[in-house]
Design a protein that fits this description.
The structure is a single chain. By secondary structure, this protein is mainly beta. The chain contains five helices and 18 strands. Strands 2, 5, 12, 13, 14, 15, 16, 17 and 18 form a nine-stranded mixed β-sheet that branches. A hairpin with a 4-residue loop joins strand 3 and strand 4. The chain is globular. It starts with 27 loop residues before the first helix and ends in a 9-residue tail after the last helix.
Amino acid sequence: MHLPLPCWNSGTELSSPSAGSRSGKMTRCQVVAILLLSFLPSTAAGTSLPTLVPRSTLQLGRVRFSARPVLELATRCDEACVRREAALLPQDFQEYLFYETLYANGTRTLTTVELSPGEGGTERRWPKRRTRRKRQIYGTDGRFSISGDHFLMDYPFSTTVKISTGCTGVLVSEQHVLTAAHCVHDGQDYVKGARKIKVGFLTPANGTGRPVMRWARVRRTQVPKGWIRSLNSISMDYDYALLELRRPHRRPHMELAVAPAAEEMAGKRIHFSGFDSDRPGELVYRFCGVEDETAHLIYQHCDARPGASGSGVYGKVWDPVRHKWERKVIGIFSGHQWLEVGGEQHDYNVAVRLTAPKFAQICYWIKGDYKSCQNE
């Protein structure tokens, strides 16, 4: 979808990296970003991840599976929403990292956790000063269909999978798929089809026709409690879920990384591939620049259609160990958000950022041992 870039004052130069420095005045969106950025700690360079330790597991009632799948998530956030986020305490964030586990037989559990900061402590994250880009005029679809047996099986396109509820996911281990939480849960109940959810691998037809989708069953699904709240307070901040396959797959997978600031990614760009509903049977790739960000969300204008939700958003991140740029998943495509500030409404495409606590949680889900995640 083509979205306006609303966060800057009219007349502000937005496009050229060589544009002059911006004025000292702050826009409403910058104020909102600072408020949100200041209330969630992140991992500073050279420090360890926070430790997420499971404390107790409670058996919950059986699931009704009454919710309808949502292929295109849209949320709203106004100044009251910002104030609620700003009023949250550290224990609130810890509670949001509690999580439900749904098993294939329909049973589920709730696991409580304790979150401890990394060795380097925590710091508040503030947006950096940056030049603005000239507002673009939309009208041309910026998506690319990936065709041909060679390209479908080429990395990183081969790591993109389809979720049977209508969304997209990305392979993040030999047996795990990361996707959007709203693809399996609407905030109050699991969606129809979540009990027998499957993961589809688009496979070349070896010259016999169109590629075919080969499905694999899921053993369990894990969703953070930050997503499982009432519909009145639903937020994109925790719109992620992990699916564990019954058996390992044979494809390469993408590595995860704590989302850096946009300036720290090659070209300040993000990329993702998904199964957009307007191109059935095709894998669709796109890339674009990051327009703005908060502690939890990445605002951008990558073209997308229903079905792309849950796509693994990746960027080229510098790996200090390997001394090279690496493609790593730093977020999950969620949908779009209406942001109302000062009586003005703005619309963005949005991806959920993998913050340090979220990374620690997903790493624990994958490895089952929080100690092994400390060196990630």
